[in-house]
Design goal:
Blueprint lengths: L4 H19 L8 E5 L4 E5 L12 H6 L5 H4 L5 H6 L6
Antiparallel strand pairs: 1-2
């Protein structure tokens, strides 16, 4: 079970919200910038605060729809998932 999974999922969800307006020609919502060292410019960005996921909180990530139980509860961690009341995988 990956500790950074929720942050990546939220980033993907937020990224899809930002890309929609970009396709239509508007700038979209950003909350900061990052430096493009090759282009030597500041790039408007959506900056998120990572939220670690631990064994006792992984069920919430699944229940909230960030990932499915099948994605998390692979064979190597199926017994742990079962102990946590998570079925799938």
């Amino acid at each position: 079970m990956r500790d950074d999974l929720q942050g990546r999922q939220e980033g993907g969800r937020r990224g899809s919200l930002t890309r929609g307006p970009l396709v239509k020609g508007s700038k979209g919502d950003t909350n900061g910038t990052v430096e493009d060292t090759e282009g030597k410019r500041q790039v408007p960005s959506v900056l998120l605060t990572p939220e670690p996921i631990y064994k006792d909180s992984v069920k919430k990530v699944i229940d909230d729809g960030f990932v499915t139980a099948d994605q998390v509860c692979t064979k190597d961690v199926a017994a742990e998932c079962q102990k946590l009341g998570i079925t799938g995988g």
